[in-house]
DUF1524 domain-containing protein (Nocardioides yefusunii), 342 residues
Amino acid sequence: MSSPSPLLRRGALGLTAALLALSLFTTPAHAAKSPKAKVDRIEVLQRSAAVKVPVLANDLRLGKLRKVKLKASGTARIKLKVVKVKGVPHLKVRPAKSTKPGKYKVVYTARTAAGMVTKSKLVITVVTPAPAGVRTDDGVLDTVAEFTEALTVAPEYDGEITYDRKNYKHWNAGLLPKDGCDTRREVLLAEATILPAVGTKCALTGGQWISAYDGAVITDAGKVDLDHMVPLSEAHDSGAWAWDAARREAYANDQGDPRSLVGVSATSNRSKSDRDPAEWMPPLATATCRYLSDWVATKYRWSLALDQAEKASITSHTACAATEVAPVTVVPRPEAGVTALR
Ligand SMILES: [Ca+2]
Ligand SMILES: [Ca+2]
Ligand SMILES: [Ca+2]
């Protein structure tokens, strides 16, 4: 399989055109010499080699570029440099090894020899590359069908290392160990549609949450269950049985991806219990595709397998095949020395 071009798609989107059209009406006459910010978008694969993108050509027609000034925002993990390719200024973009998939923005100004200054924006989406051998339309994993295809298929584990909830320690102290809030409350604070008041020992009062599985509006934190998207015992049977205690705890308290833990109504959480999509789907019909998208993303993030029935069930939701799955950061497996709990 030939490796896909790291520069996958670019060019102005409809939104850009709309913004530019709008700017025609909002640009004061005296500023006519300095065209408004233009936006370009690229997708680069995680861990790809550097990609060179021409500095937005808007002003090249107006004369040679004298200076390009970078003012990067949200790009701490993306290396940027202005280079010349055949005399044409380019931005050299390279995600660091640790760069997480997601969207990053760069704002830069360019000054031409004639003194014209333009401000431009580059939106860099770092995407999840497809592993070798997985067929995709464009080398990028970004749909439910593609993630489903990329996941390992294996029967659910039925060996001697039996599932025990207490071997998946949760909730722990969370991202902020000293704030008095455990993982559950940290996530509830992050997901609240109206923030609750936070009292001593992180007691939560008031606030509002919307349960993604059934649409229930909940105004009492005590009635929000924090659900593992892929339930602990389902994870165990899908590969986590072989993990050590630290990885299990990391999984059980995962705040590295907002899809892993989700605040939902207690009734929907209890009806879901430890079931996978072959056995349970959210009661809210409009939640189907989002649920499958988040499910395959979480399995992929943690390198968990699908069983045959589960894969068949996900695939049977043909309306969701093309549903987008936002980029996923895979949690690396420990190199060696993994001792399974017994
Ligand atoms: Ca794709
Ligand atoms: Ca905490
Ligand atoms: Ca399963």
